[in-house]
Amino acid sequence: MAQMTMIQAITDAMRVELKRNPNVLVFGEDVGKNGGVFRATDGLQKEFGEQRVFDTPLAESGIGGLAVGLGLQGFRPVAEIQFFGFVFEVFDEIAVQAARMRYRSGGRYSSPLVFRSPFGGGVKTPELHSDSLEGLMMQTPGVKVVIPSNPYDAKGLLISAIRDNDPVIFLEHMKLYRSFRGEVPEGEYTVPLGKANVVQEGKDVTIITYGAMVHTSLRAAQEIEKVRGAKAEVIDLRTIWPIDTDTILESIKRTKRAIIVQEAPRNGGAASEVMAQIMEKGVFYLEAPVLRVTSPETPYPFGQIEDEWLPDPARVVKALNQVLDF
């Protein structure tokens, strides 16, 4: 197996699908010769040509409209939104067009397209670049929302997303792009959408999380085991919509306690939805209230103070102690 960063795994996933299926197209702002702002598409235009991998004008609404139209004509577009904070410019195409296509047409048409986009904090970006807006996507019936936490999952999930017959929002945390390497198989393989992964088994409390917060949660789990001997189970959602409720419920049946960790602000979003699912379907398994560890209910702060704003292992440990001591 090759050792890859997450950005390399994402590039490799697009390369695999461009080779496999001539109807796959990759486009967005500066994704061609420049390889994208993070070089996620580096080398793809040279390998597959300007008809398959190409630049668009600086107009997210145009990128979205092109993706929807191409999907209707049998193509499999992979459209890059340069930063997910710019999603408002393409929200009409996602929520009003792509997400409703199958419903609106009575199943005659679908939108087999992927919107890839970087997001997330901890890298001191300008305003609107780090915002975690995945909660908006979760409230858009008809789309799937995928957020990988490691190179292996990133490649397998992106291949699955490109092959899916409905629109997928594929969000890539900027801090994870080059922060570590992992084993990634060469060639094609898939990781199923809508299936969570238990990244660490435990018996005393369940941590449910996704994206960069998987790594924050694992550090907190190590600390709580070292300090008080409690073993936390850590679940990486991988797909935040639809949520793999079965894996969550199986875990809390054993641990009896749960916390949810997300980088996005507290109001709404994945943590709130997971909490609701647990309360509706698994409340009698619990021996303590479910707690959330999130960022504050404020706009994303300027870079000088973002480290104080983002959840860290100490805040996760505090929540773990609360549910363990209840």
Care to describe what's here?
By secondary structure, the protein is an alpha/beta fold. It is 37% helix and 20% strand. It has helices at 6-20, 44-48, 60-72, 91-98, 101-104, 134-138, 151-163, 213-228, 245-255, 269-282, 306-309, 313-325; strands at 2-4, 24-28, 53-55, 76-80, 114-119, 144-146, 168-173, 182-184, 197-200, 205-209, 232-236, 239-241, 258-265, 291-295. A 7-stranded mixed beta sheet has the order 3-2-4-5-7-6-12, sandwiched between helices. A 5-stranded mixed beta sheet has the order 9-11-10-13-14, with helices on both faces. It has a two-stranded antiparallel sheet with strand order 1-8. Helix 10 links the parallel strand 13 and strand 14 (291-295). Helix 1 packs parallel to helix 7 (151-163), helix 3 (60-72) packs parallel to helix 4 (91-98) and helix 9 (245-255) crosses helix 10 (269-282).
Quick recap:
The protein has twelve helices and 14 strands. It has 326 residues and is α/β, with parallel strands linked by helices.
Strand order of the largest sheet: 3-2-4-5-7-6-12
Beta-strand portion reads: 15-25%
Largest β sheet strand count, sense and barrel closure? 7 strands, mixed
- What would you report as the Rg, rounded to the nearest angstrom? 20 Å
N→C terminal distance: 45 Å
Shape: globular
In N-to-C order, the SSE pattern is EHEHEHEHHEHEHEEEEHEEHEHEHH
Low-confidence stretches: none
How does the helix and strand content classify structurally? alpha/beta
